Structures are given as structure tokens and as C-alpha cells.
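Bench notes, afternoon.
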Amino acid sequence: MSINRISKNELLANYDTFLFDADGVLWTGDIPVPGAIEWINLLLEDPSKKVFVLTNNSTKTLEQYMKKIEKLGFGHLGRNNVISPAIVLADYLKSNADKFSGEYVYLIGTENLKATLENDGGVKCFGTGPDSIRDHTDGDFIHKVDMSIAPKAVVCSYDAHFSYPKIMKASNYLQDPSVEYLVTNQDYTFPGPVPGVVIPGSGATSAAVTAVTGRDPKVFGKPHKPMADFLLRRAHVDPKRTVMFGDRLDTDIMFGNANGFSSVWMPTGVHTIVDIHNAKEKGQLDRIPTFTHCFATGD
């Protein structure tokens, strides 16, 4: 199947707010996509245009992310141009200060996410770092865990130290229906530098906890509504004049389509034209992009 192409001139004429996924759209690994820097700078120079990078990566603090952006050549982007699930989640915790301010959160995630949630969300996180079964038993099963700290929420994100004890602790905390179940994003894999190597993402951790508990989480990353709501509050965008550029059908394109934005599939990342064809064959119309585009050629 073919996707309608949209030119740079058509984009500039028809849209005021431009949303971009990062890895696979603006850059791949540590290499900018041809034409992406020039396109972003052109938009930033126009005071009538709004530009946001919407990343599902919560493994970096905003400061670290800005350093990466500058290193890659996108230095004209500012802090207010970047939105991640970590930022949206921290805003949620802060906005619900009557429940969360100064309270504990059990975090399956990175130290950088912990820093963001504590500094910007006003909570106290515990649970990061290694937690091996050998810290609890010499056998094959754990029959009880320390529940002396009562968290107000369990947060699941990417965690290279994900383990059986962490699943067990999260599941037992979530037996209390008043403990909220919050997830940064449900990307099952990360894009990586080595072709053919699968890198499990945040979705792998939350899938295990969801399977054990039977609870449905509140998810803050694309394609879910909290990120769109955050964007609408911050930027006061007009959905009909907003366009989302993405490479993943199950996050970026779904996010654009679900929120009334136009969606532009970029063939520089994870999903291919074959994936679009397969989605259409399966009736997954929410994954079908409105357009496709090439930064380098402008069409």
C-alpha cells in the first residue's frame, strides 16, 4: 500500500504545532536524520509555530536529555520544547499533592527517574537498584517480603535490575486498591545500535506486574491520554492544526490519531511500510498514518 506524501510547504501552510518523536525520527542512535536539524531550526525561527519533542524515554533527566540534544546538533531546542513520561508523571504527582506530597512511591525504574520524581514530583522513591532473589532466600521461592513501608503508588518503568523480588513487592503493594499503579510507558522494546538485537523496554516490566495483579495501570507516555492532556494544558494547541511525526505505529501514530492530530509516518525508525500494510489488514486503523514525509527532500 502507499501513504500520501505531504510536502514541507503543505505542512507549513496547514499546521501550527509540530510534534516529533525523537529516536527514529530526529535521530537514529547518535546520528541525526538527514534534514532534521534544518527542519527543526526552520520551525523554531517562525514565531507562529510551536515545536515539541515527545519522547517515551524516561531513563534520562531533562538536563541529561538536553545535553544529548545539543550534542546531536539540535541545540536550538529548549527545555520547554521537550516532554517525556517522566515529566508528565512528576506533574501528576505534584498536581495531586494532597495524596503524594512527601509520601513514598515504590519505583521499578532508574536512578534518573527517581531524581525527576523526587525533585519535580515531591515524592520519596524507594526500590531502585539491584534486588536479587539471593537477597531474600537461598531457595527458589520467596514466601514473604518486607512491607514495612506503605507506598502511595507503584511506578513501573525501564529497569535493568528488574527481578522476581521486584515483581513480588510491587504485586503485594498493589493488593491495596488505594495504592495507585502508574506506568511511564508501555514500549516493549528500545531501538538499539545493533541490528537484530532485542532490547526490552518499560513495557516488559509493567506487563509482568499487570499479569500478576490483574490491575490496569495509568500510563503516561504515548499513545495514552495523560501526555496529550499535559500538552494541551501547556501549549493550548488546536488539534486540527497539530501534526505528529513518528516512526512507531503503536505509539506515535496511535497518539496522533487518538487525539485528533494529523500523523506523519517517518520511514527512518522501527516500523516499515510492511507494518502499515499488516496493520491495515488486521483492521488496526488507529495505526494508519495520514501522511509520510522526508526531511531531506522536503516531500
